[in-house]
Design goal:
The chain has about 150 residues and is an alpha+beta fold. The protein contains 2 helices and 6 strands. The chain has a domain of about 100 residues: GTP Cyclohydrolase I, domain 2 (2-Layer Sandwich). The protein is globular, with a radius of gyration of 16 Å. Pathway: tRNA modification; tRNA-queuosine biosynthesis.
Length: about 150
């Protein structure tokens, strides 16, 4: 992805109807010479069950070690919101989000934890990472408790 003009930050933007339509944007990393971890937490992520059409809820924790680019947070919020009417299984949503962020930001490393609330009485947690973490990167626990009402 080459240098781009931000199309959402500082502007009124209507949400997107699907992840395919959403635009995930990046900005230059002013600390590109430092290895560090950035975390996004989305405690109220929603999507739809592709079979029943019923809503599914999750807490997403996205950790990434930026290289030359940062994910612009407003565009991330709009991208995640685009899943609200999107039918997909938990595993698909979680991995697709992680892969999209890697595609756009090209970080040193990324991991995503999708902590899904029960469907049919079974919570489904999904974890994906882009590869082994860089040596020397501090990796704090994602801080989500095993399911007991999560919260």
């Amino acid at each position: 992805m080459s240098e781009q003009t931000l199309t959402q930050l500082g502007r009124e933007v209507r949400g997107f109807d699907s992840p395919d339509q959403a635009v995930l944007e990046r900005v230059p990393n002013p600390q590109a010479d430092v290895l560090y971890l950035a975390r996004f937490t989305a405690p109220e992520f929603t999507s739809l069950c592709p079979v029943t059409g019923q809503p599914d809820f999750a807490q997403l924790v996205i950790d990434y070690a930026p290289k030359d680019w940062l994910i612009e947070s407003k565009s991330l919020k709009l991208y995640l919101g685009s899943f609200r009417n999107h039918g997909a299984f938990h595993e698909d949503c979680t991995v697709a989000i992680g892969r999209k962020i890697v595609e756009v930001a090209q970080p040193h490393w990324l991991r995503i934890g999708g902590y899904w609330y029960p469907r049919g009485g079974i919570p489904i947690d999904v974890f994906w990472q882009s590869g082994p973490p860089p040596q020397g990167l501090w990796l704090p626990d994602q801080g989500v408790q095993p399911y007991r009402g999560r919260g």
